[in-house]
């Protein structure tokens, strides 16, 4: 059992460490600008403090402090807005933009994390108030790891089979296997694309995955992630080299075409597999009777 | 509410003048296939436009 002050300190410390840990495991969703990290760490600190203070304040009959909590929690909604605005601005100068769905997803994640930090700090400080400090500490650590694990979300390779596809032209039309990507006029570009282009076929495992892959935001996110990881041979005024992810509506299979800087084709497959499934792209038609009947 | 502009053909490059006509869009007549390629490439890079092939001797450029 700890006095209020020590319990608060312990909750604060664990909550803040949890925030640092979450920044660390998600480097891909975060462009590495040091000041962005600082902004998130300071907000994480505030969140941890709010969470840690809640129960001890109640116990000390400081009810005003608790109402302040509610007020402060409102502020965290602004984080989503802040993150969205920054990323939208940055997206304008990306060769392969993230797209609004991906940005919304990232912004939501950043908002949600602060609530998780609050929860960790709250559980730690309140347990440390009533039980031995070690119990609070251990519970906080376990909670941190399990939350981090559960909110990691799915990746494309969990919902689909990802493999290499053959890139070829039929006349002026570029195909990855049987999936039409685009019509390319310039013969020089066609030769370049046929020689260096990589096609990745994404085969959905079920009808839920099929609707997810049909989502335009999800496909843009795939193109963006792969272009970021492997680089893309494209500059402004070269629209035909834009990586595209297109769908075969008959089979539900999607295909990504990209001209990577990195020539290793297997890497492209791995990169596609690791793209996160966007929260906003998830649909579950199979949960409904109509969806299940339709899938027969 | 914001309305998205429909896609326009912004230029046509052809070696086969009989297949195109009408107004509104500049038509570049090329003497042969190589010239058509070159004109289309220049226009594409300058206008940041995509070249599409109609496979009847006519290319057109549009923004995506």
Low-confidence stretches of chain B: none
Largest beta sheet: strand ordering of chain B: 2-1-4-3
Shape of chain A: elongated
As for the number of domains of chain A, it is 2
Could you describe the largest sheet of chain A, including whether it forms a barrel? 4 strands, antiparallel
What's the shape of chain B? globular
Order of helices and strands of chain B: EEHEE
- Looking at the chains present, what oligomeric state does this protein adopt? heterodimer
Rg of chain B computed from alpha carbons, rounded to a whole number of angstroms: 12 Å
Count of DSSP helices of chain B? 1
CA-to-CA gap between the ends of chain B?
Answer: 21 Å
Could you give the count of β-strands of chain B?
Answer: 4
Termini separation of chain A = 59 Å
Low-pLDDT runs of chain A: none
Number of helices of chain A: 12
Q: Give the largest interface.
A: A-B, 16 and 18 residues
Give the overall average pLDDT of chain A: 84
Q: Into which percent range does the helicity of residues of chain B fall?
A: 10-25%
Our estimate of the beta-strand percent of chain B is 25-35%
Helix/sheet category of chain B: alpha+beta
How many structural units, i.e. domains of chain B?
1
Question: In summary, what is this structure?
Answer:
Chain A is an alpha+beta fold. In chain A, 60% of the residues lie in helices and 12% in strands.
Overview of the molecule:
The complex is a heterodimer of chains A (296) and B (64). Chain A has helices at residues 4-25, 34-59, 63-75, 77-91, 100-130, 133-150, 156-159, 187-196, 207-214, 216-230, 265-273, 289-295; strands spanning 160-165, 167-170, 173-176, 179-183, 198-204, 244-247, 254-258. Chain A is built from 12 helices and 7 strands. Chain A has 296 residues and is of the alpha+beta class. By secondary structure, chain B is an alpha+beta fold. Chain B has one domain (1-17, 28-64). In chain B, 23% of the residues lie in helices and 28% in strands. Chain B has one helix at residues 33-47; strands at 9-14, 27-29, 50-53, 58-62. Chain B is globular and about 45 Å long. The mean pLDDT of chain B is 88. The interface between A and B is medium-sized, with 16 and 18 residues.
